[in-house]
Design a protein that fits this description.
The complex is a heterodimer of chains A (about 280) and B (about 130).
Chain A lengths: L1 H12 L1 H15 L9 H20 L9 H20 L3 H9 L2 H12 L3 H44 L4 E4 L2 E7 L4 H18 L3 E8 L5 H16 L3 E5 L3 H10 L7 E2 L3 H11 L8
Parallel strand pairs in A: 2-3, 3-4, 4-5
Antiparallel strand pairs in A: 1-2
Chain B lengths: L5 E4 L2 E5 L6 H18 L3 E5 L8 H16 L3 E5 L3 H9 L8 E3 L2 H18 L7
Parallel strand pairs in B: 2-3, 3-4, 4-5
Antiparallel strand pairs in B: 1-2
Helix pairs in contact in B: 1-2
């Protein structure tokens, strides 16, 4: 109980001094990063964090870290860490935001409890526990923030990488780039079928020049797309089959059925035009 | 009882499914269609499923069956207007309807049927005119 009250006391009495030391500590350790956020913003963030921390300690339950004040503190830290992950802070810089509070707090605890070694030891221990937990929380939140970014980017790539282009009246091309997994196949298939309906095309050329490898699964996905397009009354031509891919397909024993395959998009387009009864003649 | 109308269009029959095709309705359609085909010897069946939003494996197989039955009764079937979601569902269910002709809409489907039956009429003059 004494430990807690001493921590609460110094947080309340010496807030300004602690805040000053804390910010100084962060500047010294290089965790402040004035190139990423301004000094004022940083100071405002530290001030509000310290305020909520003071309330949390005063509210009791330092060990359990439960109750409305603590959840407010945790929430604030999580938000802060996530936004720092987006701003480009490193994980250790984010964790140091909390950890650099140790030195000022310990210093002020020593000044207050200097003569009572046992009480000082207890106070230091519980403060360390508290700050370590909060630092772990920031690291975790930082990680989550990064994962969110990665997820969003993955989504962006998914949407960007499935353009369906119209080559001619009635001929669509789907240049596939990157590895094909079932998720992407689904997106690609939907995009192609929607465009087929929209443009009333009869032929779709699926160009796999940009697909690095074709294994049984990728072939399966391609065949599904072809089958779905066929159900809607369109014919598919698979183009861009590189020599190595042709070899792999045969070695794997993949049966492409009666799907027309061509080595290049150029020849595929020629076939498609031919099927539509069109020819290209020189002027 | 609810029935799906079968419309005669020259030498062909047009079946446009505009309601949810539940199992009983599908069976009735199968009965009616084979009946009509046998009665007036139509040469082609145009199955418009552009309003069909939900399919299951049974309905998928039914569509295949209808085509196969029409084939036995010497008529071509073209399934037209399948929605993307329906196509994906059927493929995922493993129903690829081999042997069933498909077209993007009724217009295209009719052209396909005309092309099919025009070739046939030239070879096979014994067939009584409708």
């Amino acid at each position: 109980m004494r430990v807690q009250s001493s921590l609460a006391d110094i947080l309340a009495d010496r807030r300004e001094a602690i805040l000053h030391d804390w910010i100084q500590e962060q500047v010294n350790s290089g965790a402040a990063r004035p190139d990423l956020i301004s000094e004022q913003t940083h100071k405002a963030q530290c001030t509000s964090l310290l305020e909520v921390l003071t309330e949390g300690v005063r509210g009791g339950e330092v060990e359990a870290k439960s109750g409305p004040n603590w959840s407010k503190l945790k929430e604030m830290l999580v938000d802060l860490s996530k936004s720092r992950a987006r701003q480009g802070f490193s994980p250790s810089e984010t964790a140091r935001l909390v950890l650099s509070l140790k030195r000022p707090l310990f210093g002020h605890l020593r000044q207050t409890l200097g003569k009572d070694a046992a009480a000082l030891g207890d106070a230091v221990w519980s403060t360390t526990m508290l700050l370590d937990d909060l630092a772990l929380l920031t690291t975790e939140a930082y990680q989550q923030g990064r994962e969110e970014i990665i997820r969003r980017q993955g989504q962006d790539v998914l949407e960007l990488s499935t353009p369906v282009v119209s080559l001619w009246d009635g001929i669509l091309a789907l240049p596939l780039i990157g590895a094909l997994d079932s998720n992407r196949t689904q997106v690609v298939m939907e995009a192609l079928l929607e465009k087929l309906v929209e443009s009333r095309s009869k032929i779709a050329i699926i160009d796999i020049t940009g697909v690095p490898t074709v294994d049984t699964q990728v072939a399966q996905h391609l065949l599904k797309t072809v089958a779905a397009a066929r159900l809607m009354g369109a014919e598919c031509i698979i183009s861009g089959i590189r020599p190595q891919i042709a070899q792999t397909i045969v070695h794997l024993g993949v049966d492409l059925g009666d799907v027309t395959t061509k080595a290049s998009l150029q020849t595929a387009l020629a076939i498609a035009l031919n099927r539509l009864g069109l020819t290209i003649v020189p002027r | 009882m609810e029935r799906i109308p079968i419309l005669r269009l020259g030498h062909h029959l047009l079946v446009s499914i505009q309601v949810d095709l539940h199992d009983r309705l599908a069976l009735t359609l199968q009965d009616d269609l084979t009946q009509r085909l046998a009665e007036n010897g139509a040469r082609g069946v145009l199955l418009d499923i552009s309003s069909l939003e939900i399919v299951d494996s049974f309905i998928g197989r039914m569509i295949g069956n209808i085509a196969a039955m029409a084939r036995v009764l010497d008529a071509h079937t073209v399934v037209v207007g399948m929605r993307p979601a329906v196509a994906i569902t059927l493929v995922e269910l493993g129903i690829s309807m081999q042997g069933v002709r498909t077209a993007i809409d009724v217009d295209d489907g009719m052209r396909l049927l005309e092309a099919d039956t025009a070739g046939e009429a030239g070879n096979n003059g014994e067939r009584p005119p409708l």
